Request: fold
Amino acid sequence: MVSKPVIWFSAIAVVLQACILLASSKKTYIVHMKHYQKPASYATHSEWYADHFQSLTSGDPDSLLYVYESAYHGFAAVLSPEEAQFLSQSDSVLGVFEDEIYTLHTTRTPEFLGLEDDSATWAGHSLHELNQASKDVVIGVLDTGVWPESKSFSDETMSDVPARWRGECEAAADFDPKIHCNKKLIGARFFSKGYDMSAGEKESPSPRDNDGHGTHTASTAAGSQVDNSSLLGYARGNARGMATHARLATYKVCWKSGCLGSDILAAMDRAILDGVNVLSLSLGGGSATYFRDTIAIGAFAAMEKGILVSCSAGNSGPAKASLANVAPWIMTVGAGTIDRDFPAFATFGNGQKYTGVSLYSGRGMGHSLVELVYDKGSNGSSNLCLPGSLDSSTVRGKVVLCDRGISARVEKGAVVRDAGGIGMILANTAANGEELVADSHLLPAMAVGRKVGDMMRQYVQTERNPRAVLSFGGTVVDVKPSPVVAAFSSRGPNMVTPEILKPDVIGPGVNILAGWSQAVGPTGLEKDKRKTMFNIMSGTSMSCPHISGLAALLKAAHPDWSPSAIKSSLMTTAYMLDNSNSPLRDAADYSLSTPWAYGAGHVDPQKALSPGLVYDATLEDYISFLCSLDYSVSMVQIFAKRPNVTCARKFRDPGQLNYPSFSVLFRKSRVVRYTRELTNVGTAGSVYTVSVDAPSMVSVTVKPSTLVFPNVGDKKRYTVTFVSQKGAHLLARSAFGSISWSNSQHLVKSPVAFSWTRL
Reply:
């Protein structure tokens, strides 16, 4: 009689263990439905999706995370692999895709971009008028949330919220909509269901930003002016966003372990329904195919609703083919420097003085030289100053030379400080070249480029008694050359569709001052207990909201322009010469840069307001583009969301899309021919002539060579033929040029990238 309950309890244990294993094997999937098949018996698509989910799976209602309405037709749910497979076989399902993790791409810029003088007149508009007009424009920022107490979100001069706005502020334990939202910050939501299913550590569900990244990007795009702002004394001045009177709606989708695709899609879905005009996403990753890329799918739906989507290009440069967010309906933004710097100096015992950068704001080291150490210990990581790698007896009271790499720059400084070091020099290696990014270190510290770093390594390894002292130079402006393409900024070629040149443009993304969260210190380290209302950060995360804010100004000036027209105006008016009138250079090694790094160039907002001509694209154009990728009709329906989509109209080549730039691939043929269409947004009676800049191994013919536009709104086509010389592929793998249309008022310039494979 004793053995039966033992067997019974053993059986229960086996069942429970099986249930635990089954639960642990479940993942979040995004299910795309054929929404047009909804039976009439269901009042809404949401009811049908929920019932479909219940009938084909185990039916746990808590497993149904989101039902999408606008950015996507379908839902996100927690499923076992078997359930996902079963769902994918349903006639009502277009596809089932596993959730993906995306990552964040982490006061001088208004002056640098020419936005400081409100009385200045641009193309018939004063900046003051543009800012006032932007009160009807809403920028949606998908990021880590918002710190609403920041002065950057003051609504002191704001008018009433537009009546068309359908968004809201969500309440949480630390977020009161009645207190924390206003006429500037008109929306604040959070999306965490996907994150909750994947994360081990749970975070408090709230729109509040406990990271700082989201507050920084939101205030960059549309922050109100805040006088006498700085980061602990650095970059002191008047801080303001690009569109100071535009409204902000924040959508928290990023948490400690990353940003889940299901949450991003839910936020984009909600933002479209709320009524945003511009979407700003300083994050990326995702799939190498558009139909599996959550951001690309959501951005397509936004584009269809007239919403421009601006995304960061990624921080994986200077490696080639490292781009994120390359869909042609997305504005893909790389990063450049501005003309402000934060110099720091290292004086060595041999009298040599080297210059680097730093945002250190403490007491400093004084004037006495101390011992300099470069510890390449037996553990193999001391030179990288990784946690636990430094011997206190070796570094205490000394300046430590650390190699950049593997761990965060500010973390290395904390490691040196905790080991007893009193200063740090962070030296670049080949991976980062000459790129200099300033940080607000916890101890006296500076960063130097690779060449200087190599000289320092040589000194400390050969000098019998190496010594150094660090000093700090504060803030300097009018630095030349600038802009310079940031070394970290991700590069082309575009590996998803090489026929589309990406990134589109670069904008300010190095050492950018903007609002910050009071929940975290400027380094982001837990041990950093300092509090500051502003922080200086670098990344394409910082350049993206600059372009989002500029897009809001363009939308205010031209409310009838499509997203592709706004994108075109920013691209064709961008510049490729720095403030010393030389071609843009690359911070990695200060060599000449190329459109694979800067796209059409650095944005010029004043010229973008009046581009003269634009390359516009319709929804049907983008569908034809997708069809040219040999996607099946069902794949195209993921974007187009209509039952009657066909690929009857299909480009012979993806590069045939009416895009403001060219990427010419010589593969099986030495001849590539594209047709483009230009729309006159300037004045009636405009006449433009073409000019071509091409490498010697390519001949370029444009017909016609003159375009006449009798009326505003007229559209004219031209055809350009690119012919590669025989054997050109033996001389070069890539080259660059441009095609420009100009008259006395406007220059409409398109970069051209050429690539060769063996013919």
About this structure: Residues 343-474 form a domain with the Glucose Oxidase; domain 1 fold (CATH 3.50.30.30).
